[in-house]
Amino acid sequence: MDLVAEMLGRWIPEAAGADVQSEVLRPPFQRRLSRNGSAPSVRDRIINRYWDYPRWLRSQVGRFDVFHVADHSYAHLVHVLPAQRAVVSCHDVDAFLPFATGEDRRKSLLPIFLSRRSFTGLQRAAAILCISESTRSALTTLPGIDAARSRVVPLGVDSSFTPVPSAAADGDARRLLGPCGAFDDLLHVGSTIDRKRIDILLRVFAAVRALRPSVRLLRVGGPLTDAQAALARDLRIDDGIVQLPFLDPGTLAAVYRRAALTLLTSEREGFGLPIIEAMASGCPVVVSDLPVCREVGGEAATYCALERVDEWTAAVLRLLDERRSDAQAWRARVDRAASQAARFSWRACAAASVDVYRSLAS
User: Fold this and answer.
1) Which of 67, 117, 157, 255 is 20 to 30 Å from 76 by CA-CA measure?
2) β-strand 184-189 against 127-130: which pairing, if any?
3) DSSP 8-state secondary structure symbol assigned to residue 77
4) pTM score > 0.90 for this model?
5) Nearest to 55 by CA among 25, 33, 31, 10
6) Interior CA angle at 172 toward 169 and 177, to 5°?
7) Are 223 and 175 members of one domain?
8) What are the helix and strand counts (H, E) for the chain?
9) pLDDT (tens digit, 9 = 90+) per residue, 60-97?
């Protein structure tokens, strides 16, 4: 996750002081099979990640005391690092589940090799920083992962996510969404991969819209897949969906502020960053009843059983009613959300990471 590397680079100097110097190690991307100006091809990405990056990183080994791989999908880099001084952040275990279930036997040879290369790198690392207790619990059930080498270091929420208005960011949101007040917007932030269960999201939106025609669904994170778009058409809700690209933090915070509620219908999450981003921005959340969501959302979120569309629908309608007719209860809900989100900071994430660096360097 690029975000982790960026935030650690920003906060380590403040959290650690002058005795810890950090640097982001990222070689320039080499295009071989795709032209400049176009999106890099999958083959170029694979070559850069698994061939160019390790070869370049070898030349950097003598310059640093500790190395932190900020995303487990790059854990193959540990093979070219001194393992006793290597740290890896683990965001989820999805990439490694095939090893535990035997499903990797049904895949082609190259993805199997690349995934196993990352997994064996993770096994070698001196320390694994899991972004939630749920992720740590799942990871330590996998073979060759020593629980003693793992610890929980939660993600933080960027200071851009705040209920305080920003003229520039709010103006950008207005250009994307139109004037305020015309709709009660439900928001979903994230990709459209299978575990996000966009099908549940669309069915909940359809049920709510049947009773509240003024409701829209905002989607941040790229367009729906063909199958998801077909389901939206079948449900006759495609005209009520506003699809937005990936947004910078300031504009995304403004979109959270505009929304009535944020929904997260995932069946699996490593952390659920939109939960704390939304709550920090003053937008209550309705999320899947998963252990990791309860770990992050605490008492401030509303939880629904994943497959119970009726339960989701009732929760959304109840909260929309509260927002319109009970200002005191709504204000209390927003305040609880802000208090919960405040428990997660990038400064604390950086400080905990530095503690691990010091223990390995010594």
Assistant:
1) 157
2) unpaired
3) G
4) yes
5) 25
6) 125
7) yes
8) 15, 10
9) 999 999 999 999 999 999 999 999 999 999 999 988 87
